[in-house]
Each structure stands twice: as structure tokens, then as C-alpha cells.
Specification:
By secondary structure, this protein is an alpha+beta fold. The protein is built from eleven helices and five strands. One of its GO terms (molecular function) is double-stranded RNA binding.
């Protein structure tokens, strides 16, 4: 059935439907934007009640030996913000956060938080001491359990990549390859972040050609030199454009994980 003809009470804009179909085609979930029949991969992706990008990550994870980590991370990403930073205790909260931070960026940092939460005996008290949102982490745990059940039903092998976190980041690329951004020429110094709207304002340029800066709350915001290529979860549009939940990647990974997309992407050439 053509999604444009769905009898929806409040139908989304045609452009939004078209963009969604293009994404599903990029992910391999449908044959084309015109032929919207699910592929075998698409049928497996539809088993997960989450963003198609995340379901593609989970289905790709066994190939990278990191389904254990991918389940935890996707669960956290599918929940609300786990960090709690009260204004009157901002400095203390940021200091406590340091124990979880990974130089690889926000994704592994979130994974570190979730792993520590799972090991904590008195979880509510532990969250309070570490300025973390107990309710959202509990919700993430419930999501992970649900996703694990589906993975077991699909006979996916649950294994851990251990300290080989490059494997996890490459796996994230399998679903988020359209969410890459590259450092603009001359933007790797130690100066201010600048605006994101002008031709020289943004530090990074996305695959869609948008200029954006790393979000100030992100782990990599103060990193110098800035990484040449990053993977982000969200592009936040406020007065400026910001990349939210960002990790360092190697530029050549996109060509390895999504070669067809990389060939078409002007920004990554």
C-alpha cells in the first residue's frame, strides 16, 4: 500500500513521507521509494518497536560481535536523557560525570553509565549520588530486556566486543551512516565554536550539507584537535545547529560500512 494514501487523521507532509521512504531504501528495508514492499531485512527490522536506524544497528551487531553493547546503547538512546544537571550543583555534577567519560565520545560514555547502573546495588541512591536520572535508566533497562527478547526470537548471537569499541562504533554506522559529519577546512584549532548558519560558522558539515557545531554538553566539544569525522544521533536546530550525542569515527569507515552511500555523498569525498 502506498504510504501517501494511508487514511491518517493527521497526515504528515508529503516531503516527510518521501524522506522517510528514502531513508528506508538507504537502510535496505524496502526495494525503492516507489516499491515500498519490505525486503527480508525490512521484515526483520519491523520486529523491533524502535527507530528503523536502531533496529538496523541491532541486526548488524552480530557481524561486529557487539550485540551485548548495542542492546544497551540502543536502549539508552531510545529513552530520555539520563544525565541530571541541576543548575545550583552544575560544577559538582560535571565533575562526577568525568568518571564515565570516554575519549571516543558520547555513545561510549552513555554505555559506561548504563553498565555502571546495572552493577549498582542501590540504584536509586547511586543515581542520586552520580547526578543521573533513575527513572530514565530504569526505563532503558526495560527497553533493553524487550529488545533482547526479540533478538533471541530472531536467533541473533549475543556477544560482547569487550574493549574493541571500534567494532561498536562501526556497528552504529550501519544504522546511522546518514548521520555523519566532517570537519570543515581550517576548523580544527582552539578558537571559539562560531555560528552554524554562515558559510564559515559551523565546525562540521553534515552529509546533507548543513553546517553545525558540536553541542556544548557533548564530550567532544572541548577536544583539541577536533576529530576529522564524527557520527551523531541528532541534529538539533535552535538559533544555531548542533550535533547531539557525537562520537569520533575514522573517515574510511563509512566507505567500508555503507560504500554505495559513501560514493554518493559529496561531503565525505
Amino acid at each position: 500500500m502506498d504510504p501517501n494514501t494511508f487514511p491518517l487523521i493527521d497526515a504528515p507532509p508529503t516531503d516527510s513521507i518521501k524522506a522517510s521512504l528514502v531513508l528506508l531504501k538507504e537502510l535496505g528495508a524496502i526495494d525503492s521509494e516507489l516499491n515500498t514492499k519490505l525486503t527480508p531485512l525490512g521484515k526483520r527490522m519491523s520486529a523491533f518497536p524502535i527507530d528503523p536506524k536502531y533496529s538496523k544497528i541491532l541486526l548488524s551487531a552480530p557481524e561486529y560481535g557487539c550485540l551485548d553493547e548495542a542492546l544497551s546503547l540502543v536502549a539508552v538512546l531510545s529513552s530520555e536523557n539520563v544525565f541530571h544537571t541541576p543548575m545550583h550543583k552544575r560544577e559538582e555534577a560535571l565533575k562526577v560525570k568525568q568518571k564515565f567519560i570516554s575519549a571516543l565520545g558520547d555513545h561510549v560514555t552513555l554505555l559506561n553509565v548504563f553498565k555502571a547502573f546495572c552493577k549498582a546495588p542501590l540504584k536509586k541512591q547511586w543515581c542520586k549520588e552520580n547526578y543521573l536520572n533513575h527513572k530514565n535508566l530504569i526505563h532503558a533497562s526495560e527497553i533493553r530486556h524487550q529488545l533482547l527478547t526479540i533478538c533471541q526470537r530472531l536467533n541473533l548471537t549475543v556477544s560482547s566486543c569487550g574493549t574493541a569499541l571500534d567494532q561498536l562504533l562501526k556497528c552504529l554506522l550501519c544504522g546511522l551512516f546518514t548521520n555523519c559529519a566532517w570537519l570543515r577546512s581550517g576548523a580544527g584549532g582552539s578558537g571559539g565554536s562560531g555560528g552554524a548558519g554562515g558559510s564559515l560558522g559551523g565546525r562540521y558539515v553534515t552529509a546533507a550539507g548543513a553546517a553545525a557545531s558540536l553541542h556544548p554538553a557533548g564530550v567532544l566539544h572541548s577536544t583539541r584537535p577536533l576529530p576529522p569525522a564524527v557520527l551523531y544521533t541528532e541534529l538539533l536546530q535552535t538559533r544555531r545547529a548542533y550535533l547531539v550525542t557525537v562520537s569520533t569515527i575514522q573517515p574510511q569507515w563509512l566507505h567500508q560500512v555503507a560504500p554505495e552511500y559513501a560514493r554518493r555523498c559529496r561531503a565525505c569525498r
